[in-house]
Each structure stands twice: as structure tokens, then as C-alpha cells.
Write a structure and sequence with these properties.
0% strand; globular
């Protein structure tokens, strides 16, 4: 592994890290790097965290990053999430890996359709606020199946599950995942959504700065 490259990206992320502790700062970076399809840099960040952070923080980082990649299937798609998850897993050392859950949280009777639909629509309203009904109607007019999948499967089953990442942190991850994708309308909506869910302006700015630093380093490789 190129340790000079690891030092360079870690330095960029430290400079952009704002009010976040290390596990969250690097989780946000992993989200952006997955969106940029830079799994080799995810491996470098993960190796750094496993080597340099206290064990409990390293475990927390890997668990949060795994969850962020699952949730951000909603923005970056399965292929990039899979690439990111593979890099994260392969660079996680044995001691940290042994402390992680081995079974899926997303299974069993809790995933009943009505409950997922209700939970997804509640989060949709929390994220989009006064724009929620208009946006739902607009997407539904374009494709009724698309709004159903977004609200029930993505918002209901994925994004509203707050057992590892709460709603505010999930929106900060969404910001980081959208910065590399050049989708300004969606980025603007999720910046607003992060604020509605309690993120302070300095947290939103720091999340964007982390994503920009990660993208700049990925582009320079």
C-alpha cells in the first residue's frame, strides 16, 4: 500500500474535518470515495483508522462506514457500494473485524410493507419539509413505480433505519455521496434536508468540504 498516498489523503481529510470526531469524519470520507468509485482510497483510509485510532473508535468507524455504504445504495447505486464495501472489509484488520456484527440487521418480521411505507413517508416529509408533497407528486407523475420504490424501499427500509446512523448523520452522508455525482438539484435538497434534521451550518459545510477533499485526491491519483 502506498503510505505516502494514505498520508496525503488523511492530511486533506484532517484539514477539512470541521466539528466531527475521527470515526464520523472518515465515515463521511468513505461515502464520498465510494461515490467517486475510488475503492483503493477507501482501503487507505480504513488501514489508517485500524492502525491509528483507539480500538473502540476503529470499530465504530468500520461499523458506521459499512452502514453508510448500505444506506447510500439509494444515491450511488449498488456497484459502487459493493466496491466500497469490499475495499473497507479487505483493509479492516482482524481485531476490528472480530468486534463487528456478522448477521444482517435488515431481516425478519419488522419489514412489513405498511410499516415500511409509513416510516419512509415520515422521513420523506422530515427531509423535504414544505416541498415534500410537491416533489412526491412530481416524481409520481413521471413514474408511479419510482416514487413507490424511493419512499418505501429506500426511505422506508434503508434510510429511516437509525440503529447505527441517525437521521441527521444519514443526511450528512447523503451530502458526501452527492458531491462527486454532479447532481446539484439533489445536493441542494439534501443540504436543506440536513438542516431540517438538525445539522448545524458548520456541520453541513464540513461534510461538503470532506467530500470535496476526497474527490480532489481521487482525481489526482
Amino acid at each position: 500500500m502506498d503510505r505516502s498516498g494514505a498520508t496525503s489523503i488523511i492530511g486533506r481529510l484532517e484539514a477539512a474535518g470541521g466539528p466531527f470526531d475521527a470515526p464520523l469524519r472518515y465515515t463521511l470520507a468513505v461515502t464520498a470515495l465510494a461515490a467517486a468509485n475510488a475503492p483503493q482510497l477507501i482501503a487507505e483510509v480504513t488501514a489508517h483508522c485500524c492502525a491509528e485510532l483507539p480500538h473502540a473508535d476503529a470499530v465504530r468507524f468500520v461499523e458506521m462506514a459499512r452502514e453508510a455504504l448500505v444506506k447510500m445504495v439509494s444515491t450511488i447505486g449498488a456497484p459502487r457500494a459493493i466496491n466500497g464495501a469490499a475495499a473497507l472489509a479487505e483493509a479492516t484488520d482482524a481485531a476490528v473485524r472480530m468486534a463487528l456484527p456478522t448477521d444482517s440487521r435488515r431481516c425478519g418480521a419488522e419489514y412489513q410493507y405498511e410499516a415500511m411505507c409509513r416510516r419512509g413517508r415520515e422521513l420523506w416529509r422530515d427531509v423535504y419539509g414544505s416541498q415534500a408533497d410537491r416533489l412526491q407528486a412530481q416524481i409520481g407523475a413521471w413514474s408511479p413505480d419510482l416514487i413507490e420504490v424511493i419512499q418505501t424501499d429506500l426511505y422506508g427500509r434503508l434510510l429511516s433505519d437509525c440503529r447505527v446512523l441517525d437521521a441527521k448523520t444519514t443526511e450528512l452522508c447523503a451530502i458526501c455521496s452527492l458531491v462527486p455525482l454532479d447532481v446539484p438539484a439533489q445536493l441542494k435538497s439534501h443540504v436543506r434536508g440536513a438542516g431540517l434534521l438538525g445539522a448545524a451550518s458548520d456541520e453541513i459545510a464540513a461534510a461538503a468540504a470532506i467530500a470535496e477533499a476526497a474527490c480532489a485526491h481521487a482525481a489526482a491519483r
